[in-house]
Amino acid sequence: MTANTHHRFRDKAHAALMDEPLQRAMDKAGDGFIARRQTAIAALDQYEALRSRAKSIKEHTLDHLPEYLERYEAQVIASGGQVHWARDAEEARKLVIDLCRRAGAGSVAKGKSMIGEEIGLNHALEAAGMEAVETDLGEYIIQLAEEPPSHIIAPALHKTREQIIAMFREHHRSHGYTEPLETVAEIVDEARAILRDKFLKADVGITGANFLIAETGSSVIVTNEGNGDLTALLPPTHIVLASLDKLVPTPEDATTLLRLLARSATGQESTAYTSFFTGPKPRNDGHESAYHVVLIDNSRSRILHGKYRDMLRCIRCGACLNHCPVYTNVGGHAYGGVYPGPMGSVLGPLLDGLAQAPELPNASSFCGRCAEVCPMSIPLPELLRQLRNDQFEERITPLRQRCATRLWSWLNTHPRLYRALAGPAMALLSRMGRNGILPRLPGLGAWQRGREFPAPEGGSFVREWNRRRGRTRHE
Amino acid sequence: MSEARREILTRLRGESGTNKAGVRDGAWSSSAGPRPRLDGSALEVFVDKLRQNSASVVRVDSEAAIIKAIGNFLRVEGQGQGQGQGLVVMPHPRLRELNWPNDLEIQCRAPRASDLNVLSLAAFGIAETGSLVLLSGTETPSEANFLPENFLCLVDRANLIEHMEEVWQHLRQQGDFPACVNLISGPSRTADVEQTIQLGAHGPRRLLVVIDEGSKNE
After folding, report:
1. Which is it for the CA torsion A123, A125, A131, A132, positive or negative?
2. Distance from CA of residue A301 to its chain's centroid?
3. What is the pLDDT of residue A6?
4. Strand B117-121's sheet: what is its strand order?
5. Which of residues 253-312 of A touch B (CB under 8 A)?
């Protein structure tokens, strides 16, 4: 959950495939996300134009990030709010805890925030003696389960209804709720009643931000539940957590990105609530209200100047997760970090270090759907490939694999030798085939356990090419 | 200014230093992007989208019709468990000065957590997404949009706009960006339990939108 989680994708993916409730939950999620996104995109006549505009907005902002951040900060201050800068997760946790203490907070309501997960905020707040309650229903469910989110927009995607009911019965008894639950409506109603109380009692509300706007000093959140708005509006103090890459210059720019975000995420044209917060809110109960923004770097400035800068365009819609054949089979927890799926396989190693997450760049079939559906045109497979190269260069890739890769690459650059070896090898493999399928081969045990390896037909591309070219010439 | 701030900005500037060329400053409105085409008039699209998102929509053309539409809704949906709780009307003159009948229990005050039915006023309606635009202020406090079980909202047809960009232009001209701008496109909902959509997660379970098409011209 914190930045130091060791990613062990291979083991966790194995366990996930054997985990029956998880597989049932993933089946239920099914293709719903894909179909809804498809319908929403098809109904939008400007999709490609918006996509290209969105990319150029983010590129422009990243080109001038310091200038826009300064403008943003000045606007927040002008609207009566305060901006606090954090270099890393630890500094961010300290700042937030300090702000909460100054607000005299015993209880903190939290809106959904991936950067909050990234900096491990809940544990830190609790260690500091404060009650931190997640108010997004999905986040609330996984907080009860003491698990990290398994999807960046549907954090409890991996939980079945039965599991949720069992947890509610266990945790809500102390609130006086003992009636049996069955339907989704009953589950939602019970959570609503319990969390409404938490909103009203909270001294501080912490939300994330989908976007920050430089021109106005606003933070933007999109929700369907309205929990983010109650979190921002009811407690006297509102703290916004945001990484540097959330910035856009204007409300119009945010509008362009919003047109893509909801459609790519849930297939909605717009979520039920899209809210722009600018400075402390007016209050009618005589209390002072406060508005703080904690701007968090946590590696973004390093990523900005490197070869993975494209990743900073990500708007966290989750489309790459929903379309990934690996993610949809093993779920989010197998990735071991805060961010799962293709975007997590890139971002995880960048945030935690490649050595901490050596398997993630390889947790991909390179089918390329993630890049196709990415509204921000992030070339995810290329970034994964680049991470593999880095692994090789930094000698994180195991020695045997590196030797094999080197040998292969050397052979490939010596075509005569390659052909001389490949010809007989193909002929041999072709003879080994039974009904066109190869028997178990040494070194391919794990791969062949679930797959059939078709036997080659004996020829080679180059031989066939030469034969046909010869024939054409003679004609 | 803090050491962290200085260090982050230095890191971001890298070797290239300050790069002010092309920064949008003072030319903010030129940043508008492509706008989706509407299939129909702003009014038609606005109504369609809201209904698709599970809101109830009523079009009226007189003050009496506004009152009647609200009364009809409250008779069906506006009874709390046990007894009816009447309607809490936000203290905006446009709402306060409606000719409320005696048989409707009206309170004109700031919203409370226990309020069942709350009526507020939208500054705009965006056709593109079927969204109400509510601006914070003492006359239309933002809590009203999220606390009640039933949220009722009046919007004048004259304030229907095609795209969100028009809101930003308006606020720019006005020279003041309110503390909260809420775009509301339906009742509160969640799909966090088995991807099943359930209305009324934390915010209102029901949304009634009353579009006034002409009482001002009476």
Report:
1. negative
2. 19
3. 58
4. B56-60, B206-212, B150-156, B117-121, B87-89, B106-108
5. 253, 255-256, 258-259, 266, 269-282, 284, 291, 295, 297, 301-302, 304-305
**A430-445 tens-digit pLDDT:** 888 888 888 888 877 7
pLDDT tens figures, A202-253: 999 999 999 999 999 999 999 999 999 999 999 999 999 999 999 999 999 9
Q: Give dist(CA A70, CA A246) in Å, integer.
A: 14
Higher pLDDT, A462 or A64: A64
**Are residues A345 and A361 in contact, defined by beta-carbon separation less than 8 angstroms?**
yes
CB contact under 8 A, A272 and B29: no
Nearest CB to A279: which of B31, B179, B196? B179
In CATH, the architecture of B40-217 is 3-Layer(aba) Sandwich (3.40)
Please report whether residue A27 resides in a domain. Answer: no
Domain residues for A101?
A: 62-301
Per-residue burial over A229-244, b if 16 or more Cβ lie within 10 Å, else e, is: bbbbbbbbbbbbbbbb
The mean predicted confidence, pLDDT, of chain B is 91
What is the spatial distance between Cα A36 and Cα B182, in angstroms, rounded to a whole number? 25
Determine, for residues A281 and B190 on separate chains, whether the beta-carbon distance falls below 8 Å.
no
| Closest chain A residue by Cα to residue B55 | A272
Dihedrals φ, ψ of B193, to 5°? -105, 110
ipTM exceeding 0.90, yes/no? yes
Domain residue spans of chain B: 40-217
Determine the Cα–Cα distance for residues B92 and B139; give it in Å rounded to an integer. 5
User: CB distance from A351 to chain B under 8 Å?
Assistant: no
